[in-house]
Fold FAD-dependent oxidoreductase.
Amino acid sequence: MTGPRRVVVVGADAVGMGAAHQALRTAAKRGESLAVTALEASSHTSYSACGIPYWMAGDVDSGDDLVARTAAEHRDAGIDLRLGTEVVAADLAARTVTTAAGDVLEYDDLVVATGAPAVVPDWARRPDGRTYDGVGVVKTLDDGAAWVSSFAEAGPGAHVVVVGAGYVGVEVAEAALERGFGVTVLTRTRGMAMLEDEMSDLVNTGLVDAGVELVLGAEVTGLEVDGDRVTGVRWDGGTREADLVVVAVGVKPATAFLENAGLDGSGLELTEDGALRPDPHGRVADHVWAAGDCCEVRRRIDDEWVFRPLGTHAAKHARALGDSLAGGDLSFDGMVDTSITRFSSSGVHLEIARTGLSRTDAEAAGLDPLALVTEGTTAAGYMPEAEPIAIWVMADRTTRRLLGVQVVGGRGAGKRIDTAAAVLWAGGSVDDLAWMDLSYAPPFATTWEVLQIAARRVADRL
Ligand SMILES: Cc1cc2nc3c(=O)[nH]c(=O)nc-3n(C[C@H](O)[C@H](O)[C@H](O)COP(=O)(O)OP(=O)(O)OC[C@H]3O[C@@H](n4cnc5c(N)ncnc54)[C@H](O)[C@@H]3O)c2cc1C
C-alpha cells in the first residue's frame, strides 16, 4: 500500500469525530499517518444533542453554545470533513462507499458512526411524508432551532403535547413548562418506563404536581389537522387540542446503507433492528468499525447486548475505536446501564437516575432478586439543603451481588447513582455498597448515607 492508510468515517458527530481525532492522535504517537475523510449528511458536526432540551427551555442561549468543535477546527486538525454528504451505499468487498451525489470513495478502514435518527410514526406525517406543521422530533441542532423558533412564535396559552415520557419526553416537558405553555404528556406505558413501577410513580407525581396533564397507557392514533397544521392529538382514550406536538418515541440505528453492502461472508451482521455489535475495540468486521447510537452495547452484569443510545457510551467507545484503528489497544469494556436526567419546573425538582438491571432483566437472567425502596433525605434533616430521596436497591439472594439501583429525589439525589454504578462495575455486593467509605457532612448526607441505608436494608433481608 502506498500513501497513508485511508480512513472513511460515515457520520461526523460525537462518535465519528471523537474516533477520528483519537485515531490521528494514536497514529501520530506511533509515527504513522492516516488520511481521514469524514462524510456527514447534515450541515452540523460535533454538537451536544443532550443540551437541546435545555436550549429549548431557555437555559442555553444559543445552538452555537452546544457546538463542541467546529468544522473549521476539524479541518485544521487535518480531517477532510465533508458536510452535506450522505452515504447511500457501501461495498464491503470492494471497500468503497457511495454518496448520494454518486461519488465513490475507497477506504482501507471504514468507521460507521451514523447514530440513530428519531422515529417518526406514520400518524405524524402528511401524505407526502413530511411531518405536519407544528409537529417534530428533538434530535438534531436543526430540530432544536426549529423548536426554539416555534416556542417563540407560539402565543401565551399555547398548548404543547409531548408524545413519549422517556428521557427526551420528560426533558421537553420541562422545557415547555419553563416557556409558560400548557403541557400534556401522552405515554403508551408510564412515565420513565425504564424505572421500576414504584419509582416511575414518583416521577408521574412530580410531573402532575408541576402542572403537566399526564396520560398513561395512551396509544396515539392520529392527529387533528387544519390543512398542513396540527391542531390536536387523538389517542385511544381521548383527544387534546395542541398547538405544538413533540414526538419523543425513540430512535432507530441509521444503518440502511449497509443492507446491500455484501454482508454475507463479510462477518458484519445487523440485528433485526439494524444495530451493529462491535467488539470492545469497535471492530465489527475486517476493516469495518462502529460505535455509538448505531450499535448495541454489552451490559456487563448479565452479559446481554442492549440498545442504549447514550452519549456517555458513544464517547468512550469512540475513543477506544479510534485508538484501536490506529494500532493502539484501548477498549470499551461494556457498561452497567447507568443513566440520569432531571425534571425541574414549577416548584418541582426531581433528579432521576438508574443503574444496573431491572427486576425483569434479573429474572430473565435466572437470578433471584430481592428489591426494596428506602426513603430518606439528601442531607441531614436539620439542614436547609435536605431534600427527599427514594432509593430502590436490588441484590441477588444467592450471591448477595448488587444488581441494580434507582434514585428519584430532590437536588443532590441523582449523582448518588454513580456510587452504585461503581460497585456494579466492580461486580461488588450489596454489602460493599452498604459498608464502603463514603463522605459525610450535614449539608451533603446523613450520618449513615441514605444510599447505604438502602443497601443495608436489602442486605439485612437477604
Ligand atoms: C434530545 C437528546 C438528549 C440527549 N441527552 C443525553 C444525555 O443526557 N446523556 C447521554 O448520555 N446521552 C444523551 N443523548 C444521546 C446522545 O446525544 C447520543 O448518544 C450521541 O449523540 C450519539 O452519538 P453518535 O455519534 O453515535 O450519533 P449522532 O450524534 O446521531 O451522529 C450521527 C451522525 O451521522 C450522520 N449520518 C447518519 N447517517 C448518515 C449517512 N448515511 N451518511 C452520512 N452521515 C450520516 C447524522 O447526520 C449524524 O450527524 C441525547 C440525545 C438527544 C437527541
Q: What stands out?
A: The longest strand covers residues 348-356.
